């Protein structure tokens, strides 16, 4: 294959050879021996909303039992509150919603936006977000600031237009997007955009920079938000002795200096065994429970009681007007109601996380061992640039290859998130011909997690199936590396 010195030429060549890459991938799946009956029915993650993993036996049993009983929904919500308080303490509260995105929406509207009542024009509100991966979620609720970022969401999502990602923006609210010190935002991809590479982020220098931004915008500052992840590829690889990412702790400290809330988007995370807001100092944390917690489709908002009061009021869960500690009524965000079956699944999943955490961490350990073994077989030039990390928070293994670009020549191709939505991220689309459902694999970062045909009914790893999926990924990476000229 040709050697390239310019990135756009390399990505142009890859685009022209997609049919050839797919053909080689299909042949490689045959060589690996992926059974015909397994193809198209298993994958590298069960944590994608568009193709969630099947429910475990315990959750299914809880649904079967509860669906035949008469249970007031306020009782289920209070059971969830009790479980959360068992773990975090009575000073924390919780509100279930139908999705994590719904949780972000109501939380930001309750805590970050200016009031809509009263005479005169509404004041301007601004929250700060690090320039990090997935910022179209927790960074999509304000108009981007500074202006250089006004088009940052242009190609995100499958349904663009006024009611696409741009349609989430809230009343008189803007979001300051703060580039992180040590991050690499160079341009890559067939869909040629900046990609977010964060393994070299300096948390202390980044926090100092964000503190300066906060000082400059103090008159309109209403909040700080970030992801709650804990791996190098997301910029949170530097941790304290308790295992808490330093950057998240510093963001909490900055927020509290300004008497504003720090809200964490931990969509691909799990309560109790993952991010601990008591240690990071976050005020509110939001989950997508169907991604990694083995729950029914639902979101969960957990936070300090002070901040949960307006959130629960907005959801109609705060309490009846005649005086109760909880209700299940109508409020502005009643449209985000998770429903009975979702609540039953949330209760079952949280009980498992509280009472049997090893049942959820063991698959992560098993995956890590298999991933390490299989990536030992990858081409040495690729292996040299890999960082493989285990995360109990995301119940996932992160494979990051930013460091393949450390030399003077072009590294392993990096696809942008825009490639994912355009169908030109070959590390995702190339798995299709192999019969493997793909995972999140952009910005030089690949996340592998259980659940999609790789686990049994109790959520434990079926080694043979999981190994097939990882072998397919390894082989696809080598095929793409060959066509890009990275390896011979």
Summarize the structure.
The protein has 17 helices and 17 strands.
Explain what you see.
With 488 residues, this protein is of the alpha/beta class. It has two domains: 7-54 and 358-484, Aspartate Aminotransferase, domain 1, CATH 3.90.1150; 57-356, Type I PLP-dependent aspartate aminotransferase-like (Major domain) (Aspartate Aminotransferase, domain 2), CATH 3.40.640. Helix content is 38%, strand content 14%. The strands form five sheets. An eight-stranded mixed β-sheet has the order 4-13-12-11-10-5-7-6, sandwiched between helices. A hairpin with a 2-residue loop joins β2 (47-48) and β3. α4 (73-88) packs parallel to α12 (340-355) and α12 (340-355) crosses α13 (357-375). The longest helix is centred in the last third of the chain and has 22 residues, at 463-484. It is globular and about 75 Å long. The mean pLDDT is 96. InterPro entries: PyrdxlP-dep_Trfase, PyrdxlP-dep_Trfase_major. This is Aminotransferase class V-fold PLP-dependent enzyme.
């Amino acid at each position: 294959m040709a050697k390239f010195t310019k990135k756009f030429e390399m990505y142009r060549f890859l685009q022209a050879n997609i049919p050839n890459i797919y053909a080689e991938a299909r042949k490689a799946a045959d060589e690996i021996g992926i059974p015909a009956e397994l193809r198209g029915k298993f994958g590298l993650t069960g944590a994608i909303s568009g193709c969630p993993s099947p429910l475990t036996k315990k959750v299914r049993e809880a649904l079967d039992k509860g669906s035949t009983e008469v249970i007031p929904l306020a009782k289920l919500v209070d059971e969830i509150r009790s479980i959360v308080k068992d773990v975090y303490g009575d000073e924390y509260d919780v509100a279930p919603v139908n999705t994590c995105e719904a949780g972000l929406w109501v939380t930001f509207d309750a805590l970050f936006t200016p009031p809509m009542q009263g005479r005169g024009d509404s004041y301007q509100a601004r929250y700060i977000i690090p320039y990090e991966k997935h910022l179209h979620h927790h960074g999509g609720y304000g108009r981007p600031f500074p202006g250089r970022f006004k088009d940052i969401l242009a190609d995100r999502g499958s349904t663009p237009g006024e009611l696409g990602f741009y349609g989430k923006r809230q009343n008189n609210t803007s979001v300051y997007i703060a580039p992180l010190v040590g991050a690499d935002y160079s341009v890559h991809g067939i869909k040629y955009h900046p990609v977010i590479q964060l393994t070299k982020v300096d948390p202390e220098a980044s926090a100092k920079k964000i503190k300066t931004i906060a000082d400059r915008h103090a008159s309109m500052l209403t909040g700080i938000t970030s992801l709650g992840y804990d791996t190098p590829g997301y910029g949170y690889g530097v941790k304290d002795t308790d295992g808490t990412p330093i950057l998240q702790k510093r963001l909490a400290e900055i927020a509290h200096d300004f008497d504003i809330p720090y809200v964490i988007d931990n969509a691909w995370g799990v309560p109790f065994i993952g991010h601990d807001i008591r240690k990071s100092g976050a005020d509110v944390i939001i989950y997508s429970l169907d991604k990694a917690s083995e729950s029914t489709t639902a979101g969960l908002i957990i936070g300090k009681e002070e901040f949960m009061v307006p959130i629960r009021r907005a959801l109609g869960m705060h309490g009846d007007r005649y005086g109760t500690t909880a209700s299940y009524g109508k409020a502005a965000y009643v449209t985000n109601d998770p429903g009975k079956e979702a609540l039953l699944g949330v209760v079952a999943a949280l009980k498992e996380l509280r009472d049997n955490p090893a049942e959820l961490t063991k698959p992560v350990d098993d995956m890590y061992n298999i991933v390490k073994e299989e990536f030992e077989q990858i081409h040495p030039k690729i292996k040299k640039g890999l960082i493989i990390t285990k995360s109990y928070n995301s119940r996932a293994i992160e494979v990051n290859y930013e460091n393949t670009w450390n030399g003077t020549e072009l590294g392993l191709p990096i696809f942008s998130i825009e490639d994912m939505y355009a169908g030109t991220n070959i590390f995702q689309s190339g798995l299709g011909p192999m019969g493997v459902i793909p995972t999140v694999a952009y910005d030089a970062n690949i996340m592998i997690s259980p659940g999609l045909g790789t686990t049994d009914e109790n959520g434990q790893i079926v080694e043979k199936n999981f190994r097939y999926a990882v072998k397919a990924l390894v082989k696809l990476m080598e095929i793409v590396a060959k066509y890009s000229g990275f390896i011979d």
